[in-house]
Amino acid sequence: EVALTRNDLQVIAEEWAGRSPAWVKAEQAGQVFALGDTVKNAEEGWWVPAYVIEGDRDRGIEPSAPELRQVEDLKRYPQVFRDPESPDKGRFLNSPSGWTSETVNSQKLKAYGLNELYTNFRSGSGAAMDAEITSAIRRGQPVLFYYWNPTPLMGRYKLVRLQEPPFDANAWATLTDASNPNPQGSQSLPAKLSIGVSKAFRDGYPDLVRAFEQVDLPIQRLN
Questions:
Q1: Which end of the chain is flanked by fewer CB atoms within 10 Å, N or C?
Q2: pLDDT per position as a tens digit, 2-42
């Protein structure tokens, strides 16, 4: 996003417009633009495999957290998601460090009163994160993790998103600010996936801009 602001990059094919402070600042300054609504109904949040709540008779898996519906319920289930390195706590699988969502999730753990009950575990990369989630699901183990769509993981497995308080703009501001000592719980900013372009690109290629504004990709097929 910073490179787009400087026109070192001219196009970001999947921009979650409005999520990061870098984008918001650049957009307000007229340095970057979000074109179109490329993928509708995308979402992000905290997820568990459906068998954690429902069980899976075909695989011989009993439900380990049958009353888990919302993040507040996680206070009752840290031992279900036990961290092998800190067995007295559960493990929450966060985004890798440096992602905007990593800051948001870390603040959410505090906001929901879960930071003393769950280890805030960060994988070294997106690929490592995927590998840990996939390994747990293949073994039928409980796993609690942040994720989003469109992604292959969402198309491949039956997952359940945990409910959070409705989106609140003031609360969201406390979640995106890692230095805020009193974050407030909220669903993440409603997703708007667009094609991000620099000002120079927008000004110089009007035909491509009009084409980009019409892109509409079906989320289920992408998953």
A1: C
A2: 999 999 999 999 999 988 889 999 999 999 999 999 999 99
Tens digits of per-residue pLDDT, 69-110? Answer: 999 999 999 999 999 999 999 999 999 998 989 999 999 999
- Using alpha carbons, select from 169, 207, 197 the residue that is nearest to residue 38: 197
Nearest partner of 54 among 153, 146, 140, 179, judged by Cα: 140
Cβ(191)–Cβ(168) below 8 Å:
no
24 Cβ contact partners less than 8 Å away, ≥ 6 residues apart: 18
DSSP output for 15-63: EETTSSHHHHHHHHTTSEEEEEEEETT--EEEEEEHHHHH-BGGGTB--
Pairing mode, strands 86-94 and 144-148:
parallel
Distance CA 169, CA 188 (A): 9
**pTM (2 decimals)?**
0.87
* Phi-psi sector, 98: left (phi>0), alpha (psi -120 to 50), beta: left
Instruction: Indicate the helix (H) or strand (E) that contains 173.
Output: helix 169-175
- Asked whether the beta carbons of 19 and 173 are under 8 A apart, the reply is no
